[in-house]
Amino acid sequence: MPFKRSPMRYAHIMGYTSVTYQDDGNCIISVGYDGDFRIWNGIGDDDPPTVCVGEHVWSALQYGDRVLVATDLNTVQAYKYPSLDKDGIEFRFTAFVTCMAKNKRFIAAGSEDATIKVLSVDDGEQFELENLEGPVLSMDASKQDLLAASIGDGKLHIWDMKTKELKKTIQDLPKVKSFERVLHFSSPTFEPKKGNLLAYPNGKEVILLNTTSWDVVKKFVNPKLSTTLTVCRFSPMGDYLAAGSESGDICIWDCETGKLVEGDKPYDANPITKLVWNPKNNGELALSDGNGQVGTVTDIFVEGGEDDAEGADIVAMAEKEDDDEDDDAFDDLFNAHLKPDERDSENDASGDDEGNENCIELEKLKSQVMGPTQKSDGAMSDAGFDDDDRGTVRSERLAVAKSYPQQHPFQPSSTPNSLEHCYLVYNHVGIVRRHATDKENSIEVEFHDSQQHHGIHLNNFLNHTMAGLSETVLAMACPNEDGNPSKIVCINQAAFGKREWTYTMPGCEEIIAVTASDKIVVVATDSRLLRVYTARGTQREVIAVAGPIVALAAYGDHFLVAYHSAPANEDQHISLMIVTCVNFKLRCREVRVPLTAGSEMQWVGYSDRGSPAVYDTAGMLNIYHATSNLWLPIYNAEYLQTKGASDHLFIIKVSESTQHVQLVLCRGSKYPLTTPKPIPMEVKFALPMCDLESEKECLEDDLVRSLYLKVNDADKLMKETAVKLFALACKNECEQRAKELVETIASSHLIPLVIKYASKIRRYHLADSLAPLLPTFQEQEVQEEKMEQESVRENAAIVNELQHINLEAITKKDTTPKIKPLPVGTKKPTNPFRKSTAAATDGISSPASSSGHTGANSSNPLEHLTGKAIGFSASRSSSPSVGSKLTSSSVDATGGQDENRPQNSGGGTSTPGMKFLPWFELNRDDLQRKHPEADEQQLIKIGMREFKAQQAKGVSSDAASSPADGGSAKRKLDASDAPESGVSKLAKFGFVKSG
User: Fold this and answer.
1) Which of 99-113, 312-326, 704-718 has the lowest mean pLDDT?
2) What is the DSSP-derived secondary structure letter of residue 910?
3) Rounded to 10 degrees, what is the CA torsion of 828, 834, 840, 846?
């Protein structure tokens, strides 16, 4: 007869659930993610005693009159059983305890912080097993004082607890970073009688080892199993071995014969998290799954002959349980699984089924709720269901949508409020600590820059549990407690007079998140409302959000709102509202948050340049590029070499200008300790580029940073990196890749530099192919500039929001002028020594202050640079081209040479070292007249031939001078011209040898 499975019933909220038996086997004890401790008087108990012992409970171990409970307080708390009065603390860790094991002489506990502590029951000695490189997943202790523990790094370790010696290490098991995400526990189990066998699941099989030689004795396999096994356990007498799978299947083998015991199929496809046998050895085991449910398996035995003495006890016990009238609860529970003839015969034997209305109602309820799949295979066969029908019905049940919990609201850069000493906020401005003990209830504020603000110590009368901190504002919020409404209290450090203001939430609204910047304060309530205030306390807008709010962040006039945009499944579906406040006008943009599969949002905020950034529990940090409307991954926690498997990163600041992330490395825990004060560290942005060991890939990484991230001197870095990549491509004989790079960047500032380099290394064909790109890029940039100006005029606020421009940050951090060249021929040459009308009363004006061709006050901030300083030869031509623009400080208004340089009396001659680009711009008109049918590219080729011919023959530079040059005739000084200096007069008498 196959074993029977009870339907899984609700015990705790969704999450890791553990189950164990009372040492006498009369009750089942379960603990779960909701922090409840339940005692079940059989699986049919409808009202089990429940005690909340913590926020989360991970494991429980009962023996004698005591029970050990592992909670999220990082301790193993002992209680009296069953009264659950506290009886001391057995172990203390730096992270929560995940599992426990016990034999007659030792008690062991393993933690998320990759440590195991062992306590000797005889003498009370306690020692640690460290350096495990991962969280402890499952443990078991044998009669021979061996301790086996599966670790998250994919290894199974076995120690001798008497000698503290590591006996054996087994590798190649599934790896996991955190216990909260473990699916395959690889739970080891020792044979209970002698302890000379060790079993553990690996894949779809259970491996049995000899603890003396560590040889593989046997492998148990279920050929019908479709998913991998997660846990396994020996029966109390060691004659059976049970294992649970990822899809909820239970596999039971006879250890002596290796025969697989048949039984009922699972009703729900949830992974089995814990499996334990009844100490009575009555063929019963209890199990729990990852959906917060518990259940039992009964009638476990191997069918044999009448003379089978070994199985006779179990069969007799099963028959005794079937005949026992006191166990009607189990009979009623499994009544739906019996065949109709068996159910009728049992009802006739009892003689009171017709008068038992409760039994009839229970059957009706089961048939209505559970459906026909709750019947056994025999019943379904009698009803006309074949195997295909049963599979179809079961698949329909499995297709029912599961429920997944959505992430709860949280404060970025904070620690849980359940701690006595916690951080309400820890960011780049300062630290806000909350002390909630029996003797003290206060808030302490510490600023990193003590010269700007002094520290604050406040009595926490309102019991504030949330805070936001900026350079000028401290915002604190308290929830609804003891009939007191939720309030927001702000202290403005930069205000005169009264610095504090407060607001009370209307009705029953409760604050769930708060954030503050130097200009605004934003509060989120459980009514899915956002309340916006100014930094001085003026109420602004009240905004409705289209989903449950998760977190807030603020920066200047901007703030972020993370909220659930859809129900959660395996992933959290979170969207981000990017809101900009301009006066009393709001602009909003919504984007989806890219979270790693199966992870939750751990931190959200702004970089120092105003770009939104998100960090998830899987260790991935992404930054938002507003212009492209894309997320870029900039760091992964796995890149930190000093990080262990159980360590976590606590983000403090993301600096986009310096390309660094400031964080705290939490050893063996999720949050930093308040005492001693943690020491932050900085890590550099690490984009997940391929093959960063080579020079080419490193330059590509720098190019992407300069193009998409707001780094210091981004334009300069882009030019330098692009030229290096261009040179590297030319060196490797990849001219097409070099040209492609220039075309992809599409910068007119880059064209002269790469043409000069290509000509220098004698790649004239490449230089000729790049020259036509210059006017095209200039035209594109002019069009882009016009479109940008039009969009600014139409809606300046939304453009400011999209680009996240912060004027103060730009002024302080980035002083590089942003210059876009004008089209060729649009700027007339001017006299740099002419007085400007605006500066007529102040004396001689500088060249940078000279007016442009339109008479406006705008000027070129690079006019003081020479062409040689930028990379061109010091040409004395007067062309209005790009090359001559950059050397305008050495050219006068008529196109002549600089008056402070020595010159020949002939005047108007050009230097023999003139490059092709300036020469071509000077002679464009003549070439066009000579060859009117030639297009732009042909004209450039013709000019290149003439230029080379003139250089080869040593032709006088008079032919290269501009027709509008005016010869050597000198112009008389106008009344508005500046007085001639002595240096200028002496320079006229200098002589330069030509040729």
Assistant:
1) 312-326
2) P
3) 90
Confidence bin at 783 (pLDDT 50/70/90) = confident
Tell me which residue of 981, 495, 588 sits closest to 802, measured CA to CA. 588
CB 95 within 8 A of CB 646: yes
429 HSE (CA, 13 A, CB side)? 23
**Size (the chain), residues:** 995
Q: Is the pLDDT of residue 215 over 70?
A: yes
272 half-sphere exposure, CB direction, 13 A CA radius: 30
Residue type, 236: P
Give yes or no for a contact between 648 and 670, defined as CB atoms under 8 angstroms apart: yes
Structure tokens at 1: 């007869």
Q: Which residue has the tokens 């057995």?
A: 90
Averaged pLDDT score across all residues of the chain:
77
Transcribe 561-589 into DSSP letters: EEEE-S--SSS--EEEEEEEEETTEEEEE
The SS3 assignment for 847 reads helix
Condensed to tens digits (0 to 9), the pLDDT of residues 250-305 reads 999 988 888 888 888 887 788 899 999 999 888 889 999 988 899 999 888 754 44
User: 741: Cβ–Cβ under 8 A, 6 or more apart, which residues?
Assistant: 722, 725, 726, 729
DSSP assignment of 8-33 equals PEE-SSSB--EEEE-TTSS-EEEE-T
Whole-Å CA distances, 182 to 185, 247, 271, 272, 805: 7, 14, 10, 11, 43
Alpha helices in 507-605 (DSSP H): none
Q: Which residues pair with 566 in a beta bridge?
A: none
Greater confidence (817 vs 423) lies with 423
Alpha carbons 21 and 348: distance in angstroms, whole number: 35
Q: Residue 913 phi/psi, 5° resolution? A: -85, 15
pLDDT in tens, 148-205: 999 988 899 999 988 888 888 998 888 888 888 788 888 999 998 888 899 999 888 9
CB atoms within 10 A of CB 64: 7
Q: What are phi and psi of 347, to 5 degrees?
A: -65, -40
CA distances to 490, 515, 532 from 538, rounded to whole Å, are 12, 16, 9
Say what the pLDDT of residue 24 is: 86
**CB-count exposure of residue 632 (10 Å: 0-12, 13-18, 19+):** buried
At 505, is the secondary structure helix, strand, or coil?
A: coil
**Integer Cα distance of 25 and 677 in angstroms:** 48
Instruction: Say which residue the tokens 């060691």 belong to.
Output: 238
Q: From CA 239, how far away is CA 233, in angstroms rounded?
A: 11
Q: What is the pTM of this model?
A: 0.52
In 3-state terms the chain splits into helix, strand, coil percentages (rounded to 5) of 25, 30, 45
SS3 725: helix
With contact defined as beta carbons under 8 Å apart, do 26 and 47 qualify? no
Bridge partners (DSSP) listed for residue 106: 120
Question: How many other β-carbons are positioned within 10 Å of the β-carbon of residue 487?
Answer: 18
Which residues fall within 8 angstroms of residue 797, CB to CB, at 6 or more apart? 580, 582, 585, 587
* Token couple for 84: 């659950």
- 3 state DSSP class of 111: strand
| Highest mean pLDDT: which range of 64-78, 744-758, 884-898, 965-979 | 64-78
- How would you label 93-126 residue by residue, b for 16+ Cβ within 10 Å and e otherwise? bbbbbbbbbbbeebbbbbbbbbbbbbbeeeeeee
Nearest Cα to Cα of residue 85 among 53, 118, 54: 53
Measured CA to CA, the distance from residue 510 to residue 596 in angstroms comes to 31
Angle formed by the axes of helices 796-803 and 773-794, nearest 10°: 120
User: pLDDT at residue 955 above 60?
Assistant: no
